[in-house]
Amino acid sequence: MNGNKHTPLRSTHWFGLQDKDGFIHRSWMKNQGFPPNLFDGRPVIGICNTWSELTPCNAHFRMIADRVKRGVYEAGGFPLEFPVMSLGETNLRPTAMLFRNLVSMDVEESIRGNPVDGVVLLCGCDKTTPSLMMGAASCDLPALVVSGGAMLNGNFRGQAIGSGTSVWTMSEDVRAGKMSFAEFTEAEACMSRSAGHCMTMGTASTMACMVEALGMGLPQNATIPAVDSRRYALAHQAGRRIVEMVRDDVKMSRILTRKAFENAIKVNAAVGGSTNLVLHLLALAGRVGVRLELDDFDRLGHNLPLLVDLMPSGRFLMEDFYYAGGVPAVVRELGDEIHRDALTVNGQTMGENTAGAPCWNREVIRERAKPIRERAGIAVLRGNLAPGGAVIKPSAATPRLLKHRGRAVVFRDIEDFKQRVDDPALPVDENSVMVMQGAGPQGYPGMPEVGNMPLPKKLLQRGITDVVRISDARMSGTAYGTVVLHVTPESSAGGPLALVRDGDEIELDTEGRKLELRVSEEELSRRRKAWTPPPPLASGGYQKLYIEHVLQADKGVDLDFLVGCRGAGIPRESH
Ligand code: FES
What kind and span of H or E run contains 295? Predict the structure, then answer.
């Protein structure tokens, strides 16, 4: 029974049946050695696991699942672990983002089709967090996220190195002749020293912080390192808590309110989080029916200061962030900016969870009055080059380039870029604006993280470390630079980005929120008439479904038919 004591739990529609169907549901489960008392009507807790050896960031998740189970049993529940497709950012091609929505379907149907009353979502590597939350949100059962935690700090020859961020820096050093390839290879194991996800404020860390800011995880869920014993204690506590949530009928929609999303956007600004968050929060809000717009990210977040000094915007790493106080200390520092009455999964409000949260290191988490940078949240740009919007992360950009006019150097796709970027004859200098087409949701497909195009060798050799780059792609949360992303509509859908030619003047004005192509309307209209859409990239399979139904970046890149909550009604019997 749940909180109102009159409605039987949904699992009793399987395990509580006193007929042939009940026999079938119970008997086959008993082949795993579960004793009869576990089928007595107690809450059945699904543990949605993204463990996979192909997803190195989540490779320790069986141990975490085991600790969640201990907590579930302790609270009188019946834990049942189930796998879903796991998205490993570093191995999966053409990009893990292509499969975020597919996994959300896997999660949604796995929950709805099974005897599950509540679910613990085990999330780590970038897309595993939004995909699991989106799928669960479309069912709206009680749910709680346990993040896997970040790797220990990277350390190479006595220096801190960060996942992703230092890869971009070191690979440019190799191309500029400042680092040998042997040294570069040696750094591989020095960077990835333990179980866990990227330890910079990349997308995985950003999403873990968002889980906490949304109220979907227990306090400190975001920052405890993967190998810290307290990560396992938190998993144990999460197991206990989800059973109570089922008994109290605390559905996901009670946590994921408009206030929760506003809190997440604000915390993201203060921690210097990834631009990928924009797409994931828009898609998640769409699943729970919360009205969230692209411009909300600018309106709510842009004027907030950067308080957390983590790579790629700053110097430190996730381990340091945890020791300094983690997300609760940041929330406390944000004061009245935060909706303190927003409910969280532990049954307390955000304000109750963070009141008195200490900060132990003011280098890592700054005071509100002494930020690392003022107005550091994601800015949304518009103009004739991005009528549907584009985003830039000012905290990771070169300040003097945030207002810039330059001539376009255009690459029609990533292959064209790779072929020509180091050509000594490429007409590029420090004032150029590098433009890439064909990397949007439909065009690639899947909107890969190629927006932070590496700089041409001839600029690196002159000591130039940043130029303005514009594309319809995404960028790794670990990356940095003056990079305009998510240009909407994308070029493959006929957006103005497709009409840019070498030598066109482009104006970026971040403070004025402008992204303009300085080409006459007559000329653009002539180019538009001559433009032909690229040939279809997939003749069948999931990719065809994706290309035909994917929404643009300003709508979160969900599939149109997945938007919304379909609930967790009891499906018809299977036999
Ligand atoms: Fe998995 Fe960065 S590659 S979190």
Answer: helix 294-301
Choose the residue to mutate in 52, 55, 89, 478 for probing ligand 1, maximizing ligand atoms within 8 Å of C-beta.
Answer: 89
Q: How many CB atoms lie within 10 A of CB 294?
A: 23
Residue 520 CA to residue 280 CA, distance in Å, equals: 35
Cβ contact 253:288 at 8 Å: yes
549-571 residue pLDDT tens: 999 999 999 999 999 999 999 99
Residues 6 or more apart whose Cβ sits within 8 Å of residue 375 = 302, 303, 304, 305, 394
Taking residues 230-246, report their average pLDDT. 98
Distance CA 483, CA 474 (A): 10
What's the whole-number mean pLDDT along residues 234-252? 98
The tokens of 480 are what?
């940095």
Spatial separation of the C-alpha atoms in residues 200 and 68, rounded to whole Å = 26
Query: DSSP letter at 550?
Result: B
Say yes or no: CB of residue 163 within 6 Å of ligand 1: yes
d(CA 156, CA 196): 18
Rounded-to-integer distance, Cα 525 and Cα 329, Å: 52
Express each pLDDT in 450-483 by its tens digit. Answer: 999 999 999 999 999 999 999 999 999 888 999 9
197 touches ligand 1 (CB under 6 Å):
yes
Segment 384-404, tens digit of pLDDT: 999 999 999 998 899 999 999
Q: Ligand 1, residues 55, 86, 90, 280: which to mutate, most atoms within 8 A of Cβ?
A: 90
CA atoms within 13 A on the CB side of 85: 20
CB within 8 Å of 540: residues ≥ 6 apart: none
Q: Is the pLDDT of residue 6 over 80?
A: no
Helical packing angle, 203-214 and 276-288, nearest 10°: 40
The model's pTM is 0.97
Q: What is the tens place of the pLDDT at every residue in 206-219?
A: 999 999 999 999 99
- The mean pLDDT value for 434-460 works out to 96
CA distances from 426 to 47, 191, 411, 421 (A): 53, 34, 11, 7
Phi, psi of 90 (to 5 degrees): -90, -15
CB 202 less than 6 A from any atom of ligand 1? yes
Dist CA 460 CA 39 (whole Å): 65
**272 Cα: distance to centroid of ligand 1 (angstroms):** 17
Give the burial class of 155: count Cβ atoms within 10 A of its Cβ; 0-12 exposed, 13-18 middle, 19 or more buried.
middle
β-pair type (159-161, 505-509):
unpaired
Kindly give the distance from the C-alpha atom of residue 61 to the centroid of ligand 1, in angstroms, as a whole number. Answer: 14
The Å distance, Cα 373 to ligand 1 centre, comes to: 26
Using the predicted structure, report yes or no on whether residue 4 has a pLDDT greater than 80.
Answer: no
Distance 233 CA to ligand 1 centre (A): 23
Torsion of CA 226, 227, 229, 233, to 10 degrees: 30
357 Cα to the center of ligand 1, angstroms: 28
Q: How far is CA 337 from CA 36, 282, 287, 493, in A?
A: 51, 20, 25, 38
Asked whether the beta carbons of 199 and 166 are under 8 A apart, the reply is no
The finding on whether 198 has its CB within 6 A of some atom of ligand 1 is yes
